[in-house]
Design goal:
- There is one protein chain.
- This protein is an alpha/beta fold.
- It has one domain: Glycosidases (TIM Barrel).
- The chain is built from 13 helices and 13 strands.
- Strands 1-2-3-4-5-7-10-11 form an eight-stranded parallel barrel, surrounded by six helices. The chain has a three-stranded mixed sheet with strand order 6-8-9. The protein has a two-stranded antiparallel ribbon with strand order 12-13.
- A hairpin with a 2-residue loop joins strand 8 and strand 9.
- Helix 8 runs antiparallel to helix 9.
- It is globular and about 50 Å long.
- It starts with 7 loop residues before the first strand and ends with a helix.
- The relative contact order is 0.14.
């Protein structure tokens, strides 16, 4: 079961989840504020900020062809209008480390976290704040764009809008349906500014949006509710990408969700669940890739994986997901690559260090790295460009 020639394989991390001590961000403040649902602060994370060379070399040794990571806005612009040349130089060294070992970097400009000053100004709820993100994207692309073949503008804007402005569990902790709607609109506007920023620099960099997608499935009577949920979680962003200058759509999916007349239902009795409480449902990848294809843009799987302590189940999950992905490709869906989440066990936002998504284990005391069995199994998939 081989994938097309030129199909690429890799894995991903996000700055706040692995770098450590990202104190200028809204998430650092959120972790330390009383009354939030965070079970622990990020602290040192995986100390990727200092260990990036050894981590990137390890990924290269495991055969990874693409490494997706994010640059941290709060480090690059810790106060409004004050840009750090040192931070930009650091990320240039990270990009150089990728190129040195033959790994193609894929950079995310915004992965959940914003500078504290931005959130204190009203964050993504206020349209007048969107140009700040555009300015930041321009600065990053001018400084680093010659080394970035792939740019992801905003990671899962639908999740930040929903959890931060409707559910109240991400910063800024609001519970306002109208605020969520405004955040969605502003994320789309910000994405388009970033597309312009990428296109404004010399080079052939591809740019796209990465969207959290769920395989929504209606139980009898839930069809209308499913349509309403999908409209605000998927459709508004897929429509935007279909109409703008994006080069690809990034699909990020982990599970399905059953929808009844009153909304989301819990896991179906008898179905295996993961550390996140999700159903073990690797079939979601095929369904979501087929849905994203309606943008008529090439698809890149920018995240897919499972939080589990049982590495055999991780292998089973990836294998089933890839078989479904292969079927979609055979049916004509233009999928260019698969990026596993995540490269290493890391900080899983409000859940702290409990869930383990990584191909590489990280000892929480020593921060030593240890590739898991799944890392070597995945290396075999990459070597074959397919499944045995």
């Amino acid at each position: 079961m081989r994938f097309p020639e030129g199909f690429f394989w890799g894995s991903a991390v996000a700055a706040h989840q692995v770098e450590g001590h990202n104190w200028a961000s809204d998430w650092w403040a959120w972790e330390h504020a009383p009354g939030t649902p965070c079970v622990e602060p990020s602290g040192d994370a995986c100390d990727f900020y200092h260990r990036y060379r050894e981590d990137i070399a390890l990924l290269a040794a495991l055969g990874h062809q693409v490494f997706r990571f994010s640059v941290e806005w709060a480090r690059i612009e810790p106060e409004e209008g004050e840009f750090s040349r040192a931070a930009l130089a650091h990320y240039r060294r990270v990009l150089g480390a990728c190129h040195d070992v033959g790994i193609t970097p894929m950079v995310t400009l915004h992965h959940f976290t914003s500078p504290r000053w931005f959130t204190e100004r009203g964050g993504w709820e206020r349209a007048e704040n969107v140009p700040f993100y555009g300015r930041y994207a321009e600065r990053v692309m001018r400084a680093l764009g010659d080394l970035i073949p792939y740019v992801c503008t905003i990671n899962e804007p639908n999740i930040v809008a929903t959890l931060g402005y409707l559910a109240g569990v991400f910063p800024p902790g609001k519970r306002d349906r109208d605020a969520r709607h405004r955040a969605n609109e502003n994320f789309i506007a910000a994405h388009r500014l970033a597309v312009e920023a990428v296109k404004s620099v010399p080079g052939k960099g591809w740019v796209g949006l990465t969207l959290a997608m769920t395989d929504y499935q209606a139980v009898p009577g839930g069809e209308e509710r499913l349509h309403a949920i999908r409209a605000v979680m998927h459709d508004v962003f897929l429509d935007a990408v279909a109409e703008d200058g994006s080069d690809f759509i990034g699909v990020q999916t982990y599970t399905r969700q059953r929808i009844g007349p009153d909304g989301a239902l819990g896991p179906e009795p008898g179905v295996e669940t993961t550390q996140m409480g999700y159903e073990f449902w690797p079939q979601a990848l095929e369904a979501c890739v087929r849905e994203a294809a309606r943008t008529r843009k090439p698809v890149i799987v920018t995240e897919n994986g499972i939080g589990t302590a049982d590495d055999n189940r991780r292998i089973a999950y990836i294998e089933t997901a890839l078989r479904g992905l292969h079927r979609a490709i055979q049916d004509g869906v233009d999928v260019r690559g698969y990026i596993h989440w995540s490269s290493m066990d890391n900080f899983e936002w409000t859940r702290g260090y409990g869930p383990t998504f990584g191909l590489i284990a990280v000892d929480r005391e020593t921060l030593a790295r240890r590739p898991k069995l799944s890392a070597y199994w995945y290396a075999g998939v990459i070597r074959r460009n397919g499944l045995p």
